[in-house]
What we know:
The structure holds two protein chains of two kinds.
Chain A: H1 2-14, E1 44-51, H2 52-68, E2 72-79, H3 81-93, E3 100-104, H4 108-113, H5 131-135, E4 138-139, E5 142-143, E6 146-152, E7 154-158, H6 159-165, H7 173-186, H8 202-213, H9 230-244, H10 257-264, E8 269-272, H11 275-284, E9 292-295, E10 305-314, H12 321-331, H13 334-344, E11 347-348, H14 357-360, H15 363-372, E12 375-376, H16 384-399, H17 405-419
Parallel strand pairs in A: 1-2, 1-3, 10-12
Antiparallel strand pairs in A: 3-10, 4-5, 6-10, 6-11, 7-8, 7-9
Chain B: H1 2-13, H2 19-52, H3 74-81, H4 83-117, H5 122-134, H6 137-147, H7 154-161, H8 173-201, H9 205-213, H10 218-229, H11 231-246, H12 250-255, H13 267-276, H14 280-305
Helix pairs in contact in B: 2-14, 4-8, 4-11, 4-13, 5-8, 8-11, 11-14, 13-14
Amino acid sequence: MQRRRGAVTALAVVTALAVVGCGRDSAGGGGETARPVDQGTAKGEITVWAMGTEGEKLSVLARDFEAANPEAKVTVTAIPWDAARDKIATAIAGRQTPDVSLIGTTNMAEFARSGALDPTPSVIDGGQFFSGAAQTTVVNGTSYGVPWYVETRLLYYRTDLAQRAGAAPPTNWSELTAFATAMKEKSGAKWGLNLQAGGKGTWQTFMPFAWQAGASITDEGGTKFTLDSPEMVKALEYYKTFFAGQLSPDALLRPGELEQGFIDGSFGAFFSGPWHIGLIKEQGGAAMDGKWAVARMPRDKAGTSFVGGGDLAVFKDAKNRDAAWKFVQYLTRPEVQVKWYTEVGDLPSVKSAWQDPKLSADPLLKTFGEQLDEAKSPPAIATWEQVATVIDTEIEKVVKGVSSPADSAKAMQAQATSIGTGL
Amino acid sequence: MVAEAIPVRRRAVRRPMSLRTRRALAAWGFALPFLAVFAAFMAGPVVASLAMSFTDLRGTDLRNPLNVNLIGFDNYVRLFGDEVFRQALTNTAVFVLGSVPLTIVSALAVALALNRGITRLRTFFRVGYYLPVVTSIVAVAVVWRFLLQPDTGLLNSLLRTIGIAGPHWLDDPALAMLSIIVLTAWRGMGFMMVVFIAGLQAIPRDVYEAAEIDGAGRWARFRFVTLPMLRPTMLFAVVVTSIGQLQFIEEPFVMTRGGPLNSTLSVSMDVYAQFGFGNYGYASAMSYMLFVVIVALTVVWFRLLRSR
């Protein structure tokens, strides 16, 4: 099945490849100016693709929008996340895109670079979003969409175990080490702190430490990688201490193992995003009430976390471009963002939405909101997913002791440089 | 006169087609739906991906796929310097060297046992050995990961009762590959068992009887009757298993995701990853490299096992 999907993508991509081309002219992506969007209500059919829960529930907001814009009709197609990238890529190649799509933050650069996305017009106020989230839409200085919802990572910990161990939530690196050690030695937890030891997406757990140490993935202009900096080596060394000290398991966890271990007390703490609030409540039930809390990232030079989420973009091949941007603009209104939170639990990307009591009165969410002010995303480069795989592999080597932090930082830099930034 | 001439010409036109032409037309008619589907979904992509493998087509070229550079064999040359691809190639070789013999030998052993030795509960065993073939790989992976769990898994619990501390099966680079090989052989054995049973039943009984009269023992009968008579079946089994297992992707995909440390990363997984990264030209070159290996190995098997 996997092979067939590749073959079909291949077919779609080069159906037109009858005469093989004559060199690459400058593709889109960067340095573009956005056309304005007309005034008045939206008209006509707006086709939207969205993945996962967002795709299933978006029709709720679409009905509200249609009520305010009687001449518009929003058609939502739900597509699975697994197929999302291939499906959008195929649509771009065949110039059969929807008007709007939800796009994973790490795919934005590739699609924008292909010239498929419409630059964000001025009806959208880019300043209303958390800056880390807004950065995910900016490719080569031009914004190609809006952050729709966000997520960021915090420290989840068992308050009862921390009390037994006499440990307060950590505020800096040395306190985090002491915290994990106390959790392991004094609270009865088998593992003081779970950190991802390897495999896909390890960078999301690791990069906050690198950013906290002052490391960065690329230079300011996003043209050169800076993965072999002393700060990166320092972060790798720090990350490694948790595995060398047996504070974190170096084996990959089974799905569900972390949640179960946190509830039965074998994991004292872990870093994760807002979805774990629901998972812990659902699986732990009333017995877990009051036994856990979240805390902000520890500080080194900074207290940075990772920000991810989903972006909304309008395609250049959209049939109803102006109405599409109006729908996107509607989805980023603070009150609509709050309603979306109550419908599916997605955290608002618009800062002012967080003043609503539905979010600000909840102490768990309040911490997420605070952390979002100090959260970064990887640079919007077209090759990011490939570079991320390199980082994942090198972290795993450090964790398993196969490679030293300095060697791994050098290897990351060399491989990332050979992959390039896709410019 | 004119009125008479016309029927003559008509008769000539309506002369029935020859039987051969009609048969050929009917055959093409029946084949046409398949040929259309084949051209659109198989031949098309095959030709397109071959063309792609000589370009630097990337995800960022999607909207203007013609704006690519022809780079000749650059993608193929790059493969040799690609550390991850080389590791995937080595892993695939180790995997095939381990899993193909294991699948074939165990399938043949079970087929021999079920063909003659075991008479009671024969259907039960046949169904039992075939069941892994029709079980979803996802379900298989979940169960196997439970079995192989270091602390609480069944396998290590059993080892503990005889005083052996079981290893971390899926977290150790060498053992992870071993686990995947055993899993694949277990999954693939059932189908080959059916093939071998069919092959064994096609061997005429009188050949065995003649051998017995000549004083051939059990081993001699197996060595000099069963194995030679099974040669065509063996060729089929080995070729089909090799082709399938050179492209293995499902087992590591669901069990280890290619880890730990890329030790179970297969060529197909690497190809899939490269397509995912949007490196269409490079990924196509990888696919063709794998294709060449598959063809080469198949030729070798034919040379070795062809009936003489």
